[in-house]
Amino acid sequence: MSSVVTDRSAAIASEPLRPAGPRRGFATGTVSSIRDLVAQRELLGMLVRRELKARYKDSAAGFLWSLGRPLAMLLIYYLALGQFLGAARSVVDFAIFIYAGLTAWGFYSEAILAGTGSVVANAGLVKKIYLPREIFPLSAVGSALFNFGVQLVVLVLATIVVGKFPVGDDWVYFPLALAVLVVFATAMSLILSAVNVYLRDVQYLVDIFIMVFFWLSPIVYLWSFVRDALLDTTMSPATQELVMNIYLSNPITLAVIGFQETFWAAGDGVHPETKVPYAHVPDLALRLGIALAVGILLLWVAQRIFTRLQANFAQEL
């Protein structure tokens, strides 16, 4: 036994010292962090699986519960807005339209909410061992991606059931929109999870902002409703265009519209009452590409902010 302990101690002593603080250099520090994450990819996979198993532990339906909230929201909005308030009369296949937006928004909101509290939730690991702390918000995003995949399958099946499976060039919007969601969700999770360690009020503020931004995104209404509402105001045309561009500058708004353009095939048709074709966002692919480029830059900055703040995580927790 003593020889085993001696050998183990010698092996540990031979390991080089690894700084737990931030690596210096905006570029070199990022490369070092990426190498650490790649080296710990198996641990990242284990954390994602642990997150999923813990969430649905001892439940009879298991992962099917990931459909519970979006389907309940779909039913509520379909009945309240679509049937009772008559929105379904102006939006063909209203259920597909809503569920496409809910699928995109569900992933983003779940990743942000889980990511914000991910470091605090894993305080035990943070205080005991060194590992890239970015793993925790990344595992939250990975768990949200799994649930998103389940919901996406339901969305695709729904388009098949109604006989309007998306085909053609509109599929170009899907990978761009998904990439925008993943990049921005990861960037915001990194920043918010780090700040939440020092200021626990952040997780409650995120709940409020998630609710506000839900209604700022065209999930249960057409984006053109915002344009039409602006046209009915007394604003000058230049001001109207400015406000509209600000509205369409929200990357999540663009991602939601990208999902609707892909899966809501009825959007290529005409309004059932006015017989006017549904409006499409001009240069949507270009706008999504620009949003993705901005998101990648934000992700880089977010990772460096996280690295700077992580040095005192153990003491704060």
Notes on the protein architecture:
There is one protein chain. It contains 15 helices and no strands. The protein has helices at 2-14, 26-39, 41-55, 68-84, 94-116, 118-121, 123-128, 135-161, 173-198, 202-216, 223-231, 237-247, 251-263, 284-309, 313-316. With 317 residues, the chain is mainly alpha-helical. The chain has one domain (43-316). It is elongated.
End-to-end gap = 36 Å
Mean pLDDT: 82
Strand content: under 5%
The dominant shape is elongated
- Topology order in helix (H) and strand (E) letters: HHHHHHHHHHHHHHH
What is the tally of beta strands? Answer: 0
What share of the residues lie within helices? over 70%
Number of helices: 15
Given helix and strand content, the structural type is: mainly alpha
**Quick one: biggest sheet?**
none
Low-confidence stretches: none
Question: Helices and strands in order, then pairings?
Answer:
Blueprint: H1 2-14, H2 26-39, H3 41-55, H4 68-84, H5 94-116, H6 118-121, H7 123-128, H8 135-161, H9 173-198, H10 202-216, H11 223-231, H12 237-247, H13 251-263, H14 284-309, H15 313-316
Keywords, separated by commas or semicolons:
317 residues, 0% strand, mainly alpha
